[in-house]
């Protein structure tokens, strides 16, 4: 399939920025630029209740934003982790996606502001993501949610954290996670698959320099790239993990590793649904594309049997 016209128009706008030079900039400068780009996004979908809160977790206080589509009901809950290469992103940059997810699924969404690198290197983000999930499972009633019907979700780096939290929860025998929604997840730090070789620096994907910029900031030690909690695709045993729905995009450099993770989960006996969105690019679900609405509807259908089961 050719690049979708909506994606092409978005990339044309992006070409007017210093996107290709990001690896020459400090993290704070890019964070500020990412926030300025929010002006290009339409207003997020209305949600009945949106509230910011600081929660006290096993690793200390964390800021979260809680989206409740129907406050008069006790609903399932999705713990959401934003993308941004473990260095960028916050509750505001992914507010639109979190809102859309709450509306599409009719579940409470708890978006987590986990600590970012390089100020907080691995495993700080992983530990915070797991601690936030455990807190939500224990305190869901305070949020108008049911902690026994809990999913994890995330896009890109956030998809990595969702997958890793599912692994940690399995090995710790809790909290129980009913489903994992992995949106173009970053699950293999070796950077060797076909799509990452073919599309690096093209179609809005970061180039090789920026790939290393993100990894170096997050890890510090290159030897950690094959650690199972960094590259869950390389985890030795994927049996017993919760069902997964995996979203990939045709022109995304992370496409192949997300799809390979789905195959490994299937081989381990984990129920998996997956869909590649033709003509689409990395981060397409953050933008007002027709395919983003389709992907949200597909994700909601995939999560519903486990989250809304009697």
Outline the structure in words.
The chain is an alpha/beta fold. Helix content is 36%, strand content 19%. The protein contains nine helices and eight strands. The protein has helices spanning 5-14, 27-36, 95-105, 124-139, 157-171, 194-199, 208-219, 255-267, 290-307; strands at 49-57, 60-68, 75-81, 108-113, 145-155, 179-183, 244-249, 272-277. It has an eight-stranded mixed beta sheet, sandwiched between helices. A hairpin with a 2-residue loop joins strand 1 (49-57) and strand 2. Helix 3 packs across helix 9 (290-307) and helix 4 (124-139) crosses helix 5 (157-171). The chain is globular. It starts with a helix and ends with a helix. The mean pLDDT is 95.
Topology as H/E string? HHEEEHEHEHEHHEHEH
Question: What is the overall number of helices?
Answer: 9
The side-by-side strand order for the widest beta sheet comes to 1-2-4-3-5-6-7-8
- Low-confidence stretches at least 5 residues in length (pLDDT < 50)? none
Which outline best applies?
A: globular
**Strand fraction band?**
15-25%
Structural class computed from helices and strand pairing: alpha/beta
Oligomer: single chain
Give the averaged pLDDT, no decimals: 95
CA radius of gyration: 18 Å
Q: What distance separates the N and C termini?
A: 41 Å
Number of strands: 8
Relative helix content: 25-40%
Major sheet description:
8 strands, mixed
